[in-house]
Amino acid sequence: MNGPEDTSRSQPRVTYLVKRLEQAVRSHLDEATGEVGLTTPQYAALSSLLTRPGTTSAELARMAFTSAQAMNQMVATLERKGLIRRESLPHHRKQLGIFLTDHGLECLRLCEERADQVEKRMFADLSAAEQRTLARLLRKCSSALAGDDARASGD
Fold this sequence. Notes:
About 60% of the residues lie in helices and about 10% in strands. By secondary structure, the chain is mainly alpha-helical. Strand 1 and strand 2 (about 90-100) form a beta hairpin. The N and C termini lie far apart (about 40 Å).
């Protein structure tokens, strides 16, 4: 037996290929975000805050699939770097919402440029139609494993 590439198969399992791709993407994103002085999880947190400003640390932890303690440490680091600020939320004075600073927006923009380059390299041999198909199929697979009855958008 050859591990994930079982000898009874002529091709490796799709799940193995997905994991290999995830590892390669993560490696390239780590390098790309590192050029900006961030980690990939920090970049992901900033991205989330762009679309959901005022998110609490607990909400951000759920969105990032991380523990509240790990997110609290990340938020403290991002705040020290001047990338985010925390403010009391108008509807819940005891809760602090997290917002991007101008410096955070600029770092996020730089990370996005680098992530675009990673995707450009990854998709170099795929047509635009193949890229859309791949995205649609990945959404469907994710939805199926998440237990969603709703079909992925774009079907």
